[in-house]
Amino acid sequence: MELLHSGGRVKDIQSVYLDTTFCDPRFYQIPSREECLRGVLELVRSWITRSPKHVVWLNCKAAYGYEYLFTNLSEELGVQVHVDKLDMFKNMPDILHHLTTDRNTQIHACRHPKAEEYFQWNKLPCGMASKTKTVLHTISIKPSTMWFGERTRKTNVIVRTGESSYRACFSFHSSYSEIKDFLSYICPVNAYPNVIPIGLTVDKVMDFLKPLCRSSQCAEPKYKPLGKLKRARTVHLDSVDTTIRTPRPRKMKGCSQ
Ligand SMILES: [Zn+2]
């Protein structure tokens, strides 16, 4: 946060480029990362402590973006996470030691195009069950975004979707209310969307962002010095009168759209 401040005040920010994936009141609240992590952590802990044959498969849809989840699970449970390749993390030393290419671990985030099919046969994407000829007890946890409207009550961050499958709330993106809070706080001159939320248009996203920017607010006029006071002399025929004049007030700028 200190990068946004200078001398104890919020910096004067001209333009902000935002992740607007969920910039829509439909996505008013998304449970916090900490709350989601706690849910996943408890589920994984309760499963893998049953026996060494109890394993968890994190069904992640992308190769990147789950590092927060992997590192925290590994740190809390002391179990490395199986991934297909380590070279993609070679420039991330903080993450690297939480990951492994050794399949004999109880947490897997390995991937395979037919992974969901494999899972129906109680087989991990890395094929561990068939290779070692041991029966594994596997559950799958699919991290996916869950959202709640302004007035909807938040429910559990873990949802059971099948006998051994779960969906866990996990989001890389800010909710609508977080975007609003952030912009209201830093109050930039302009804000630009990086993503158009599903079902919306650029204009619609701008309609949400603009009222939170200074470019559309006239309430706080820009400070402009009045300039030097001029002393003008008006000479009358019968007397000498001295009047102090101030320059005419300038027309306020900044309200044009
Ligand atoms: Zn694996």
UniProtKB/TrEMBL annotation:
Keywords: Endonuclease, Exonuclease, Hydrolase, Nuclease
Keyword Oxidoreductase set for record: no
Name recorded for this polypeptide: DNA cross-link repair 1C, PSO2 homolog (S. cerevisiae), isoform CRA_a
Matches recorded under InterPro entries: DRMBL
Domain DNA repair metallo-beta-lactamase, residue spans: 94-197
Keyword set includes 4Fe-4S: no
GO molecular function, one term: endonuclease activity
Pfam families: DRMBL (PF07522)
Recorded name of the encoding gene: Dclre1c
